[in-house]
Structures are given as C-alpha cells and as structure tokens.
Fold this protein.
Amino acid sequence: MNAQAQDWDDLRLFLAVAREGSLSGAARVLGVTHSTVFRRIGAFEERLGVRLFERLPGGYALTAAGEEMRDSVLRIEDEIAALALKVTGQDQRPSGTIRLTTTDMLAVGVLPRHLAAFRADWPEIELDVVVADHVLDLTRREADVALRIGNPGQEVLVGRRVGRLAFAVYAAEGQPAAPDPAAADWIGYGTAHGPLSRALARWWPEARHVMRTNSINAAHAATRAGIGIAALPCAIADCDPGLTRTMPMPEDFSLDLWLLTHEDLRHTARIRIFMDFMATALTRDSDLLEGRCPLCRGVEAGE
C-alpha cells in the first residue's frame, strides 16, 4: 500500500510538471519546493528507465514517452475522480445501514416506537441494533451511532445530550409498601450501573437485597413479579400497569442520555438524518423520560 501511494504521488507530480511546463509551476501547484520536484522527477525517470521530459531553456517539454504517460495518467485521474464522486454520492443518499449500539433497557423500553417511525420515514435506511453490556468503541467503528447513558467525553466523538433519564422506586401493583425502605426487600444492581448503584448504597446503606442483577430489564421483571422493590427508570416503569411508584429518588437523581457518533461520520447523510430524527424524538419525550408523564398511569406530573 505504501508503494502504491508513492507511485500515485509520483504520477501526480509528473502530471503537474506536464501541465505547468516548469518545475517552479508544478512546485507552486503542489505546495512543495522546486528542489523536491527536481529530485523526484529525476528519480521517477530513473526508476522507469525512460526520459519523460526534455529540459529546455524555456521549461520542461514532454518527450514522446512523456506524452504517452500523460494520456494514461489523465485517464487514471478521471477514473479516480469519477470513483470519488460515486462514493460520495452514495454517502449523501439517504440509504445504507446504520449500526446503532445501546443498552438493553433503552433498546427494549425507549427506542422501538421511535425506530419504527424512523423506518416509516426513511425506508431505504436499514438499522442494525447492537445491544451490548459493554460499551462498543465508536473510534474503532464497532458501531456508527451510540445512545448511551452518560457522556464518555472522547474528543473524536460528536453528539448531543438528548434528555435526562429519571428514576424512582417501584413495587408490584397491590404490594404493600414498607414504611422504611431499609426494611423492604430490594432488587439491586451490585457493581453494575455504577452511578445508580453508588447512589442507592449512599441513601439506603442498610437495604436488604434479596436479588441482584446487572440488567434493568431483569430488575423490572422481578419487581413486577413481587420479588422486591427496585429503582427503575420512570420512562419504562410508569407505563407498566403492573407497577406502582412508591417513592421518588432523593436528590432528584437522573442520568444524562447522549446520542453520539464519530466525527468522521457526522456529515454522512444517513447518519446525519438519523441523529437529527432521534434527537428530536427523544427531546419530545422529555416528560416521559424525566418521570412527569401523567398519561402512562395517571402519575401526577412533578411527583
């Protein structure tokens, strides 16, 4: 690959000299020094074993071999330009595949209806949704877009905060609430979901955990089954008639939602369209995400 890149650089330099008719003109067009052009043209001719230019008092003139070389290089240049336009055109069409990574909780509880609406508007864009416990690396192109809880702060990633995810404590519908949270049976997260787990441990250090899981969805199901109470996202739990919100989280606890992509992809049409669509959709969901949606279960706004 390095040799091929060098060959193309030499061809570009040769073409610049052929067009400008002088070393100084070619140097000016390419942004290099006169001596660099002189040295590289000499080395190129020596490597090919043919003289491409006649050195004349008024400048450089193509030999017969040089004219044949020029015609071939012009065809190569045209083909490369056509290929670049074709590739760019494909990227600018609203089509292709977007690889989206997110958590199981967001993939199940928040995204489906928005993805359905997106597909209805943009049927030529396919979605590859990767639900991963670990964070896929957008800098290594393991995914194109990420919807994450918390901003990783990597300089090569661009995006926006699209909402705040509020939490509250929930119990199964009809289950009597314990007067003291520390006396209740809790479903906890162990070392998973770090900010949430640390906050719960600080507020209720004596809580009795009868079950631990690394999955919000599993905690949701266990709470609904009556195993214990759990801190759950309001966006999911408020819409489940099998759950009752028993208490708010202290300190108005919530987590930021970030929609991110790699800076090299931000101007690709399908990525730009998806980012704008999802940012708008999630922003409109702010009442639901932040636990103020009375439409799901009759929960009073601001509870």
